Amino acid sequence: QVHLVASGGGLVQAGDSLRLSCATSGRTFSTYIMGWFRQAPGKEREFVAAVSRNGGTTYYEDSVKGRFTVSRDNARNTVYLEMNSLKPEDTAVYYCAANSYSWDAAFRTNLYAYWGQGTQVTVSS
Q1: CA torsion 65→66→67→71, rounded to 10°?
Q2: Which backbone phi and psi does 57 adopt, to 5 degrees?
Q3: What is the 3-state secondary structure (H, E, C) of the chain?
Q4: How far apart are CA 38 and CA 6, in angstroms?
């Protein structure tokens, strides 16, 4: 099993930056595509970003392109999400997740087998 622990969320103002981290257990971190998802109150969980197994390829939801950067450090079993120019609509609980299936479906929530507990990001106007 893979255990994921997300951290780094907080309360910030529009235009500020945050860096989220997701630490994992075990020795199989590098075998997983890692994704970030978010869920706002009353909304479905949605895809935010994903990074390939070796960190060489990334994919982003359109609304965060140019503002968010996903990366990973396989030596530390950690994935990151750097969020810049935050907007109020970015407010949500952010979850990291592990996907062993396919890069072509990296945006699909239901293909991620392991999930972290989530960390709250709140962006004020």
Answers
A1: 80
A2: -130, 140
A3: CCCEEEECCEEEECCCCEEEEEEECCCCHHHCEEEEEEECCCCCCEEEEEECCCCCCEEECHHHCCCEEEEEECCCCEEEEEECCCCHHHCEEEEEEEECCCHHHCCCHHHCCEECCCEEEEEEC
A4: 12
Q: What is the mean pLDDT of residues 64-84?
A: 96
pLDDT, average across residues 59-74:
97
Beta bridge partners of 5: 23
| DSSP element (H, E) containing 97 | strand 92-99
* Burial 112-125, CB ≥16 within 10 A → b, else e: bebbbebbebebee
Average confidence (pLDDT) over 119-124: 98
Predicted local confidence at residue 14, as pLDDT: 98
CA 82 to the chain's CA centroid: 9
